[in-house]
TrEMBL record:
<dbReference type="InterPro" id="IPR000639">
    <property type="entry name" value="Epox_hydrolase-like"/>
</dbReference>
<protein>
    <submittedName>
        <fullName>Alpha/beta fold hydrolase</fullName>
    </submittedName>
</protein>
<dbReference type="GO" id="GO:0016787">
    <property type="term" value="F:hydrolase activity"/>
</dbReference>
<keyword id="KW-0378">Hydrolase</keyword>
<dbReference type="InterPro" id="IPR000073">
    <property type="entry name" value="AB_hydrolase_1"/>
</dbReference>
<feature type="domain" description="AB hydrolase-1">
    <location>
        <begin position="36"/>
        <end position="281"/>
    </location>
</feature>
<dbReference type="InterPro" id="IPR029058">
    <property type="entry name" value="AB_hydrolase_fold"/>
</dbReference>
<dbReference type="Pfam" id="PF00561">
    <property type="entry name" value="Abhydrolase_1"/>
</dbReference>
């Protein structure tokens, strides 16, 4: 999960249409010849979570972020499969068509935005449209293979690792339950959320209008994509440059889950950031600096 942040004013949105969804898209900076960086936010965030990082990069790059379907000022879709990875990749393609139709972009993902980013770089639909990928999470396929590997080992140590990780991620399974997660957000979690994140990261986090709506809409991400991928993870790879942005104190995405990502992305760089899961809020200058260095490296 990620956190809301509304401390910095956002640019006026431009709306990009994909099927029945209008995606609120925001841009910072951008001169002729600048590289374009597209940021993908996680759950239960909106594009505003990137505002501090975008401001730090806007003098060197064209920076773009958009409210994922069902969040911020974007449309909330209907239908059982409205949040499937195929729909999310279609949204990203529509945004790329609007902001950089003739030149590949660099994408950066956090939380579910990172999982969406992996689907984009490992799949075929956006081949040639992406120049590099910086990600704060491993691919969901990789996590699925990790769980299967612990069971296949048939050792007490492997079983112990499986159980400990499953317990630590049990909140994801709870989000699969009908009705109860929705009620939890409506009956108090929406008000408590900024305080919970503030305590975990030891920084002030502002509340955000629409937080409950976004959190409830985003449950579709878990219910549509999580269990099918973990049960039957695929095996794919990309030759694109990939940077792993590892938050060293992240309880939700522990550093060891990034081990072995070379099989998915041989052209890999691993970068550590001394923060918890919300390093994009707690350490925006560090995060922005690593993204800028990586993007610039691809240009040279």
């Amino acid at each position: 999960m990620s956190s809301p942040n509304a401390t910095r004013a956002m640019p006026e949105p431009r709306f990009v249409r994909n099927d029945d969804v209008d995606l609120a898209t925001y841009q910072w900076g951008g001169r002729d010849g600048d590289e374009t960086i597209v940021f993908l936010h996680g759950y239960p965030d909106a594009a505003a979570v990137w505002a501090d990082i975008a401001a730090l990069l806007a003098d060197r790059f064209r920076v773009v972020a958009f409210d994922m379907r069902g969040t911020g000022q974007s449309t909330t879709p209907s239908g059982r499969n409205a949040y499937g990875f195929d729909r999310l990749i279609g949204d990203l393609e529509a945004v790329l068509d609007a902001v950089s139709p003739d030149r590949p972009v660099h994408i950066v993902g956090h939380d579910w935005g990172a999982l969406q980013g992996w689907e984009a770089v490992l799949g075929e639909q956006l081949k040639g449209r992406i120049a590099s990928f910086s990600t704060a999470a491993p691919s969901l396929d990789h996590v699925g293979h990790w769980f299967h590997g612990q069971l296949r080992a048939k050792t007490l140590a492997g079983l112990g690792r499986f159980v400990r990780r499953a317990l630590a991620s049990s909140y994801m399974l709870m989000l699969q339950i009908p009705v109860i997660p929705e009620m939890t957000w409506r009956l108090g979690l929406g008000r408590l959320w900024p305080r919970l994140v503030s305590r975990l990261e030891r920084l002030p986090v502002a509340g955000r209008h629409g937080q409950v709506r976004d959190a409830i809409s985003g449950l579709g991400l878990y219910r549509t994509n999580l269990l099918p991928t973990l049960r039957r993870p695929s095996s794919r790879s990309t030759d694109l440059p990939v940077q792993l942005l590892v938050m060293t104190r992240d309880p939700f995405v522990p550093a060891f889950l990034f081990d072995g990502m070379e099989q998915w992305a041989p052209n890999l760089r691993r970068t550590a950031i001394d923060s918890g899961h919300w390093g994009i809020l707690a350490r925006p200058a560090d995060f922005a600096g690593h993204v800028a260095d990586f993007v610039t490296q691809q240009r040279n």
